[in-house]
Design brief:
The protein is an alpha/beta fold. About 45% of the residues lie in helices and about 15% in strands. It has 16 helices and 15 strands. The protein has helices spanning about 5-15, 15-25, 35-50, 65-75, 120-135, 170-190, 230-235, 255-265, 275-280, 340-350, 360-375, 380-385, 390-400, 410-415, 430-440, 450-480, and strands spanning about 55-60, 80-85, 85-90, 90-95, 100, 105-110, 140-150, 160-165, 270, 285-295, 310-320, 325-330, 355-360, 390, 400. The protein has a 6-stranded mixed sheet. Strands 12-11-10-13-14 form a 5-stranded mixed sheet, sandwiched between helices. A hairpin with a 7-residue loop joins strand 11 (about 310-320) and strand 12. Helix 2 crosses helix 6 (about 170-190), helix 3 crosses helix 15 and helix 15 runs antiparallel to helix 16 (about 450-480). The termini are far apart. About 35% of the residues are buried.
Length: about 475
């Protein structure tokens, strides 16, 4: 059934059940466009790192056991720098990024990551590698993390792309911890019987929660919005896995208490302040939605790795909701940075009067960044920001339906408020996939016909978001009028 790799082991640390399922490929497959982009960029970063070690010999082969045999040959031949070295020992397998042998016969482990700062999980990955290497008789003396530098720009030497961080002590400590449980982990993961799952704070973001601990559970405590990890653990200790079991004296935030009351009473919450908040919206009203892309490697010059770039927007204008008097849309030229043009178009289309409705504070933050980038446009951009009304904040504070399940994002509330409106018919119907599609165009991976089709689909997706805001606004106005 294969060896226990890094992903299986780390998932086991989080949850034995998850590790067991990962080994058997029972997790949802990563097949979305944004998943493909992340994998593509991750591979590219690793290949770029090879240029830092021009004397290195690549041990990679198509199969892990072949790569492991090739690695053994390279070590026997006394190669000092081995790239993509593979090791199998004790039922575990690992492929390292770069191994360097020093004069004393000990090894230096380099781990290449595409993130732009240190993360604890990077040490966990390195510790697993060091553990498997130790089982294979390879002693690691030093462990270095190589992550991306904010100072890198396109055209610079590849040495400027990476920042090195010595993690030797952290890796050694974590490796000892892993070694102490490795035999138990091996037995649990290889067992024919799945480890019995149990509720814990990690379950909240688990990819199999809905088919595991959350299966057939109505009104789970995870439906309480912004529930802290400590609060989750306290409720688990009280055997309170559903909202109706939360003790009356358990401290909840105001919004969490509202959610609990709705669950217990089976009613929908409508605040007395909803009418006032809606009345403060000034006409004509504009509905604004942005799309953006963040890539690991810069798409254009003078941009750092992991920079978020605005790529398009959609605007609906209304003097009488839900009637739309004007629709504006813009999508960037994928061959260049168009943030200046986006700022100028926003100023042109949004004018100087009327509220601007967004869903979340992302648009306000993005416009604030544009005002810093382009001081000559600052006054007009600040005027736009001063007029922004966050519709999600209005929903979150003033309206709650138990079918929201503690969420307030547009994808969660829209099917409840406006059941006939959804994104299922769109070729691109999710923000991450929209960003990935634009990135693929900018990377030159699409031909002209595919680019034309993609831009059409991106405009349709963004327009759907603004129309969703119009519908939600009208839904709330009708509630106030009915009330």
């Amino acid at each position: 059934m294969g060896y226990i790799n890094k992903t299986v082991f780390i998932n086991y640390i989080d949850c034995p059940t998850l590790g067991w399922m990962t080994k058997r490929r029972m997790l949802p497959r990563l097949k979305e466009l944004n998943d493909k982009l992340l994998m593509l960029e991750g591979r590219n970063i690793h290949k770029l790192s090879w240029a830092l070690f021009p004397d290195g010999v690549n041990a990679q082969k198509s199969e892990i056991i072949t790569s492991e045999q090739h690695t053994g040959q390279l070590i026997e031949e006394n190669n000092k720098i081995i790239l993509e070295a593979s090791f199998v020992s004790g039922g575990f397998s690992v492929r390292t990024d770069s191994l360097h042998k020093n004069d004393s016969g000990l090894w230096h482990l380099y781990e290449v990551k595409s993130g732009s700062k240190y993360k604890v999980k990077y040490v966990e990955d390195m510790a697993f590698s060091a553990m498997v290497l130790a089982k294979a008789g390879i002693k690691i003396e030093n462990a270095t993390l190589m992550h991306l530098s904010h100072d890198y720009r396109l055209g610079m030497n590849i040495e400027n792309l990476f920042t090195s961080l010595d993690c030797t002590e952290k890796v050694a400590a974590k490796m000892q911890e892993y070694e102490s449980i490795s035999q138990k982990a091996f037995e649990d993961i290889e067992s024919d019987t799945m480890p019995e799952p149990y509720l814990k704070r990690n379950c909240k973001n688990c990819p199999v929660f809905n088919t595991c601990m959350g299966k057939d559970v109505k009104n789970h405590i995870f439906d309480l919005p912004r529930l802290s990890g400590i609060a989750i653990e306290e409720l688990i200790a009280l055997a309170a896995d559903t909202i109706d079991k939360v003790p009356d004296d358990f401290e909840l935030t105001e919004m969490q208490q509202i959610v609990k009351n709705c669950v217990l009473s089976g009613t929908t919450y409508i605040s007395d302040n909803l009418k006032t908040e809606l009345a403060n919206i000034k006409y004509p009203v504009f509905y604004l939605d942005f799309e953006s892309v963040t890539t690991i490697m810069p798409l254009y010059h003078d941009i750092a790795p992991h920079t978020q770039l605005l790529t398009q927007f959609s605007i609906d204008k209304s003097e009488n909701v839900p009637e739309i008097s004007r629709h504006f849309e813009y999508i960037a030229d994928h061959t260049k940075d168009c943030r200046r043009e986006i700022a100028e178009k926003l100023i042109e289309y949004l004018g100087k009067e009327g509220s601007i409705i967004t869903y979340s504070n992302f648009e306000k933050i993005a416009i604030g960044r544009l005002s810093v980038m382009f001081p000559d446009l600052c006054e007009d951009l600040r005027n736009i920001n001063d007029r922004i009304v966050d519709l999600e904040a209005i929903v979150r504070k003033n309206y709650y339906d138990i079918n929201f399940h503690g969420r307030s994002s547009i994808k969660k509330v829209l099917p409840v408020m406006i059941p006939e409106m959804n994104y299922d018919e769109l070729a691109i119907g999710e923000g991450g996939n929209a960003a990935a599609a634009f990135a693929f165009m900018a990377m030159g991976l699409y031909d002209e016909e595919k680019i034309k089709e993609t831009k059409k689909n991106l405009l349709a997706y963004c327009a759907q978001d603004t129309m969703a805001m119009v519908k939600i606004h009208k839904f709330l106005l009708d509630i106030v009028n009915d009330k």
